[in-house]
Design brief:
The structure holds 2 protein chains of 2 kinds. The two termini of chain A are 33 Å apart. Chain A is an alpha/beta fold. In chain A, the strands form 4 sheets. Chain A has an 8-stranded mixed beta sheet with strand order 12-11-13-14-10-15-16-17, with helices on both faces. In chain A, strands 4-3-2-1-7-6-5 form a 7-stranded antiparallel beta sheet. In chain A, strands 8-9 form a two-stranded antiparallel ribbon. Helices cover 25% and strands 28% of the residues of chain A. By secondary structure, chain B is mostly helical. Chain B has one domain. Chain B contains 6 helices and no strands. Chain B is elongated, with a radius of gyration of 21 Å. The N and C termini of chain B lie close together (10 Å). The chains are: A alpha/beta, B mainly alpha. The interface between A and B is medium-sized, with 15 and 21 residues.
Amino acid sequence: MTDWLRYLAAGLREPVGTAAGLLLPGPEEIRLRAGRPVELIGPGRSGFVTPAGELTEEPGRALRATPSDVATTFQLVCQGSVYAWEEELRGGFVTLPGGHRVGVAGRAVVEGGRLRTVRPVASLSLRIARALPGAARGLLPHLVTGGRLLSTLLISPPQAGKTTLLRDLVRLASTGDPAAGLRPQKVAVVDERSEIGGSAGGVPTLDLGPRTDVLDGCPKAEGMLLVIRALSPEVVAVDELGRDEDAGAVLEGLLAGVTVLATAHAGSLDEARRRPSLRRLLAQGAFARAVLLSRRLGPGTVEQVWRLPEGEPLLRGTLAPRDRRGSRQEGWACGPR
Amino acid sequence: MWAKVIGALLVTGAGAGVGWQLAQPLSRRPEELRQIQAGLSLLETEIGYGAVPLPEALGRAAAAGGAARRLFGRAAAACDRAETPAAALQMALGAFWAGSALAPPDREALAGLAAVLGASDRQDQIRHLRLCRERLRAAEAAAEADRLRYERLYRHLGLLGGLAAAILLL
C-alpha cells in the first residue's frame, strides 16, 4: 500500500519507496523538513532515509529534503490548489484520499490574531492511515451487550491507533459479528477530518461496512445532530472529541437512544476526566465503556477497558496487537502487564 | 492580352491577400484578449466562491470559448501529465502561443499568472487573477485602438500596392 508515494516530490519517491519497504507492515509516518534529513517512522523501527533507499540512524548519511522538495510535495498534496484547502490548513493539516493526514508547519501568516495560512511550508508530516480489518475483534466481548455495541470512548496519547480501532469498530458494527453476539446495525460516521473513512468526493475509500453512512468534512457537533435527524442511525462514530460543543452533541445523541463511539486524546482515564469537555461527558455517564490504548507493544495495545460510570476495570492483562509484522492483524493475544 | 489581364488580376489579388494577412492579427488580438479575460473571470469565480481545485476550475474556465477554450481546456487536459496544475498551464501556454495573435506583453501577463496559480490562499489568488485581467484589459484597449488605426490601412495598402505593381508590370 504505497498510494501515498505519488504525493512526494519526484526526487524523493524512489529512495523513500525503497526504504518504506524495509518497514513492515509499512511506515506510520514520513517527515519532510526543508534542508534536513527525510525521516521514516514505523511501528517498531524508524530512521533517516539514505539516497540509496536504506534506513540509517546517522543524519549525516541521510538524504536531505530541499526547500523545493517540500514545496513541491505540498503542492502535490493540495493538487496544486492551496486555496481549496484553506480551512483545513488553518487547522494545521490536509487529509488525502485514503485517509492519510498531512500536517503542516512553516512560517505562519496571521491576520487579526487568527492564522490565515502557512507560507512557506517548511515541514510536512505524512501520517499513513491503515485499515486493519479485525483489529477491534478481540475487544468486542467487552463492548457488546444484548446484541448492541455500548457507547464507548477510546482514549490514548497521539499515534496509539485510536482511529484505526474506531474504523474497525464501525466496520464490525455495520457488518455484525455473530461470534461476539453483535447484530448488524445502521452506522453514521461524522468524519470531520476525513480520517475515519478516508473519503474522496464524499465516498469512503476505506472499508466501513455495508450499513455505514459517512458525513464527510462536517464539524462534529453540527454533524452529529444532522445524522441523528436525517439518517436514523443506531450507532454514531466521531473522531477526537475536544470542544465543548462536541460534548453537547454527544449528550444529545445519547438521549436520542443512539450508541456513540468516540475517541479523545488523553494518557489515562484520570487525564480524560480532567479535560474540561470530557469531564462533563464522563460526569453525566455518557459512555458505558472507556478503552485506553498505548504503543507499548505496538500501536493498538489495549491497556485497559473500564466499565463506566463506576470506573471498574474489566481487563486483567494487556491486549497486544497479535502480529505487528504481518499484513493482516486479527485481534489480540494476551501479553504481560 | 488575356494573359496580361489575368496576370494583373493575380498580382492585385496577391497584394490584397498580403494586406489582409497583415491586418488579421490586428483584429484577432482584441478578440482573443476578450475571450481570455472571460475565462479568467470564470476561473476567479470557481476559485473565489467555489474553492474548486485547479484541474476542475481550468476545465470550467474553458467554457468561455475561443482562445479561452484553447488555452484553459488544454491546461485542464495537461493536468494529468504535469506535476502541478500551474505547470500544466505553463505547458498549455507554450502550445497556445503558436496559433495566437497575442503580443509579448500579453504573454508576460499570462506567464506571470501561471507562475503563481494555485500557490497561495483564495484572497491572494483573486488578487493575482484580477491583476492579470487588468493588464489584459489595458492591452485590449490598446489592441482595439491599433485595430481601428491600422486594420483598414493594411488592407488598402495591400490592395493598392498590388494594383500599382500590376500597372507597372503592364
